């Protein structure tokens, strides 16, 4: 069974599993399925607004798809999440990526 199918099965049993949702979004991103990836990142962030890594990886997916304005917004939201959770490392990574996109 492939990873996507495994993660979809986990989510069928537990739709609120943040780690599985994040993993599914990453798998879709890795194979270039941008829309599916962003849909999963959206579900993740909606249900778990302080899952900071979701913002960063969604922004990377958007940037790879040449959707720079959306990537910037995602990074700004992610920086807010990082500040709420006192995650200085994630905050600095997203600030650096945001500066690169300017």
Summarize the structure.
The chain is an all-alpha fold and 102 residues long.
Secondary-structure map:
Elements: H1 3-13, H2 18-30, H3 34-47, H4 52-64, H5 68-84, H6 88-101
Helix pairs in contact: 1-2, 2-3, 2-4, 3-4, 4-5, 4-6, 5-6
Structure description:
This protein is mostly helical and 102 residues long. The protein has one domain: Serine Threonine Protein Phosphatase 5, Tetratricopeptide repeat, CATH 1.25.40. The chain has helices spanning 3-13, 18-30, 34-47, 52-64, 68-84, 88-101. Helix 4 (52-64) runs parallel beside helix 6 (88-101) and helix 5 (68-84) runs antiparallel to helix 6 (88-101). The longest helix is centred in the last third of the chain and has 17 residues, at 68-84. It is globular, with a radius of gyration of 13 Å. The termini are far apart.
Q: Which regions are unreliable across 5 or more consecutive residues at pLDDT < 50?
A: none
What fold name stands as the CATH topology?
Serine Threonine Protein Phosphatase 5, Tetratricopeptide repeat
The CATH architecture assignment turns out to be Alpha Horseshoe
Largest sheet: none
Q: Output the radius of gyration.
A: 13 Å
CATH superfamily: Tetratricopeptide repeat domain
Element string (H = helix, E = strand): HHHHHH
Please describe the structure with a list of short key phrases separated by commas or semicolons.
0% strand; mainly alpha; 102 residues; 6 helices; Serine Threonine Protein Phosphatase 5, Tetratricopeptide repeat; globular
């Amino acid at each position: 069974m492939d990873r996507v199918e495994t993660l979809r099965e986990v989510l069928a049993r537990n739709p609120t599993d943040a780690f599985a949702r994040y993993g599914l979004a990453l798998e879709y991103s890795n194979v270039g399925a941008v829309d599916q990836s962003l849909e999963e990142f959206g579900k993740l962030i909606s249900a778990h607004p302080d899952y900071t890594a979701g913002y960063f990886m969604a922004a990377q997916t958007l940037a790879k798809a040449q959707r720079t304005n959306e990537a910037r917004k995602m990074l700004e939201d992610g920086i807010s999440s990082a500040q709420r959770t006192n995650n200085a490392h994630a905050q600095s990574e997203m600030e650096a990526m945001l500066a690169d996109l300017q």
